[in-house]
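Methods — Computational structure assignment.
A single polypeptide chain was analysed. Its primary sequence is given first, followed by the predicted tertiary structure written as structure tokens.
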Amino acid sequence: MNRATVRPRVVMVDGVPMSGLVAEAQDPRAVIVALHGGGTTSTYFDCPGHPQLSLLRLGATLGFTVVALDRPGHGSSAPYPEAVHSPQQRVELAFGAVERILGPRPRGAGLFLMGHSGGCELVLRMAASPLAAGLLGLELGGTGRRYHPAAKEVMRAAAQQDRPPGVRELLWEPMRLYPADIISAITNSSVAPVTNGAWH
């Protein structure tokens, strides 16, 4: 069993509380910054009750510090929609959170960005930012080049409602691929996420 410690963190960035999870390596090879998709939070990368499925624990065991951020508009920053409205605001908040979480701690070779699903949009914007100088690389997963027509309909409704019918099925089917307790543990959120608008 993986014994790496995962700690929740909340830091203030320009008056906005930014939350996430951190698993530190004592002398890291590099830092992985992981950004979750829609309908979940940073817990996506540290499955509650299933440490063997944790990116944070595995990364720290392999010598990487892993920071899983709650994307701007999720977690602690959810009550601050005016502060996360523009893409530039979200990029600055994400980089600011990483800086405050890491502080003077060693970063090894540098930062590597990882995005899942809706987190890919922010990862791409971060990678293109001047704040990403020295970025080691990025990884995008759980996304494609085009939305399926059925997904477009569900996401259109998601931009107008907190939790429209079909979102859970769109994001998490087929359910048989997940341990029974995973979906409810990582998708519980009382606040609707910020919609990032269409991007292609």
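Note: Helices lie at 55-61, 87-102, 119-128, 149-158, 167-172, 182-187.
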